[in-house]
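Posting this for the archive.
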Amino acid sequence: MSRARELITGRSPAFWILLALGLLALVAAWISIRGALAYVHLRAARSSVADVKQALRDDDLPAARQVLASMGADTRAARGLTGDPVWVTVSSLPFLGDMPAAVRDVATATDLAVREVGPPAMAAYEKLAPSTLIDGNGRIDLARVAAATPDVRRASAAAERARSVADGTGGALLAPVRTAVRRAQAQVGQLADALAAARTAVEVSPTMLGIDGERRYLVAVQNPAEARGTGGLLGAYAVATVRNGAVSVSKIGSNSDLDDATAPVVDLGADFADLYGNDPGLWANANLSPHFPYA
């Protein structure tokens, strides 16, 4: 032990400096090589997105699932390459760890989007595909909508987790890495927004489509000949009747068929009245406000 201690303590400062530089070079090489490999896997996964979309357009779900599985293998590899102890340790360093942390976050968010969002989203798509969702009479199968709801919820929750990881990325980044991060944030954000909208749709559509009894809706067709808050004035209208997923049109007409009022029929508050007065009592002015619930 004393001899070993002498060998260690007897080294010159230059030795320790060279040793430290050597270790830094090894770490840099490790990060660079594994980062390059992760990039290759992420690029391969990104290039397969178009194939998934095409398979779904062709209503070829087995092919879409096969491509998704290949994408999952790539994103899992990229996440593994950027999640080892050396990479995690370097990522925790102030400033120097910003770029490794950003690459790791992008790989993690992409992997979540593919392997945790993809399978339940595919399962929901299978239930909600137009070819099976709508029968020959145009009736929407509400039982299939209900069956798809848990899958859509799982996919939406996973997409939000992916967005949280992607949006947490930042720091001092070189331009190529910053561009890749922003692209990933935008794409994951779009996916999360789309699935949030899909979740709302499957949750409210059974009731809106008359699963609990008949529903009637006013369909307003806007004419852009005059500007209004929501796009144009009401020119034509229809009354749609919905029961248990079956939609029928019970009436069609123009705004001249509708009775105007001398004042708004709903009190929307003093601010609304100050802005628009009694004008919204006329059907042609019902949508003066750009706030859709008011219109």
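The two ends are 86 Å apart (CA to CA). The first strand starts at residue 215 and ends at 223.
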